[in-house]
From TrEMBL:
The keyword Transcription applies. It comes from Cucumis sativus. This is WRKY protein. It is found in: Nucleus. Keywords: DNA-binding, Nucleus, Transcription, Transcription regulation. Pfam families: WRKY. One of its GO terms (cellular component) is nucleus. Residues 110-175 form the WRKY domain. It comes from the Eukaryota.
DNA sequence: CGACTTTGACCTGCGC
DNA sequence: GCGCAGGTCAAAGTCG
């Protein structure tokens, strides 16, 4: 079921995500999402739905155990750097603890895997994921000294849903020249092409209009909070261009989009 | 020709 | 220790 898959996709904040998915009816009817998210009760109700639905219960223990462990690491790690030893190829530094960063995950209904977000990305890997028919792609920000990575995968149950997980924080501005252009990038997020459903991990990344409800979500999992919002009716005109599209979606976290090294 | 993608191999962590 | 799964590297190929 998709719930199980999503638990694997999001290594922390599973409860929140699971709740949101169910609350929004993502696996079945996307037409309801806008209505549900527009109401402030969406998040509240989502919590009550958590872990009560069929299909995800049997994995809860193991998943949550894993989640706890990972979330602990996530919270302590704010760096965006790759953990690999410099210039040593595939080998990671021995004894270095593998740490996962707080992720910012977006669920986006899109036909294309790689969504333009204003930054330039280079694909460096692709792997088949267990329990998913769709491979996961790995991208890295092409800007030098920017260690931001992202993973892109498709929803198991609904291939039209693209799940993009960002790791790290950009320490630079959006490149002046994009493959395409900014307007094209904006078009990627336009309602005509897709229905953005950002699932945000990390306290403080919540859109202002939903942050009042965020406490319900943040309280459970600890670490990176997974968060979903499907009704971003933003216009990108008049926004600060340096933060890019994601910044438009999430006005608050300048530290995320413009992290200093 | 530079930027990017593809893809198989390799490495690490983790559970058994 | 072994096998699995996830993540990464890097050579080769592709594209504009």
């Amino acid at each position: 079921m998709s719930d199980e898959m999503f638990k694997d996709l999001f290594y922390s904040g599973m409860d929140e995500y699971e709740s949101i998915v169910r609350a929004f009816g993502i696996t079945s009817d996307y037409s309801n999402i806008n209505n549900e998210i527009s109401g402030t009760t969406a998040m509240n109700s989502s919590c009550s739905l958590s872990s009560s639905d069929a299909g995800g219960g049997e994995e809860d223990d193991s998943v949550k155990e894993k989640e706890k462990q990972i979330s602990k690491d996530v919270v302590e790690d704010n760096g965006g750097e790759s953990s690999k030893a410099a210039g040593s190829g595939k080998s990671k530094k021995k004894g270095e603890k593998k740490e996962r960063e707080a992720g910012v995950a977006f669920m986006t209904k899109s036909e294309v895997d790689h969504l333009e977000d204003g930054y330039r990305w280079r694909k460096y890997g692709q792997k088949a994921v267990k329990n998913s028919a769709y491979p996961r792609s790995y991208y890295r920000c092409t800007t030098q000294k920017c260690g931001v990575k992202k993973r892109v995968e498709r929803s198991y149950e609904d291939p039209s849903i693209v799940i993009t997980t960002y790791e790290g924080q950009h320490n630079h501005l959006i490149p002046a020249t994009l493959r395409g252009n900014l307007s094209a990038a904006s078009g990627t997020f336009s309602p005509s092409m897709l229905t953005p459903m950002p699932v945000v991990g990390g306290v403080g990344f919540l859109p202002a209009e939903l942050s009042s409800n965020a406490g319900n979500n943040q309280a459970v999992g600890g670490g990176a909070t997974v968060y979903s919002h499907n009704n971003f009716d933003y216009t990108y005109n008049g926004r600060q261009p340096e933060y890019g599209l994601l910044q438009d979606i999430f006005p608050a976290p300048s530290s995320f989009f413009n992290r200093q090294p």
